[in-house]
Amino acid sequence: MISLQVFYEGNVQGVGFRWSVRHAAKGFDVTGWVRNLPDGRVELNVTGEEEEVHAFLDRPRGIALPDSQADRKEVGQTGQCARL
Question: pLDDT, tens digit, for every residue of 41-67?
């Protein structure tokens, strides 16, 4: 079981990015949360089995919308999270 903290930069607020992340998570056995930050980034905390977490994060179109232009910055391991 791993927990990762991930930051997304770019055009990620006001384009449905958080909704897209939450929707994508429903297809995976992961828990976590996602929120907008005051500096314009989006923060994601995700927990699950290592393969499941990486499959969720790598899912094509799973965590992006046509109007978003996100750069993913994986920070590292964190604590446990609540269900997305």
Answer: 888 899 999 999 989 888 744 455 555
Give, as one character, the DSSP assignment of residue 68: -
Report CA torsion sign: 49, 54, 60, 62. positive
Long-range contacts of 72-77 (CB under 8 A, 24+ apart): 72/6, 72/7, 72/8, 73/6, 73/7, 73/8, 73/9, 74/4, 74/5, 74/6, 75/4, 75/5, 75/6, 75/7, 76/4, 76/5, 77/2, 77/3, 77/4, 77/5
Q: Which token pair is 4?
A: 């990762």
What is the pTM for the complete model shown? 0.71
Mind telling me the catalytic residues? Answer: 18, 36
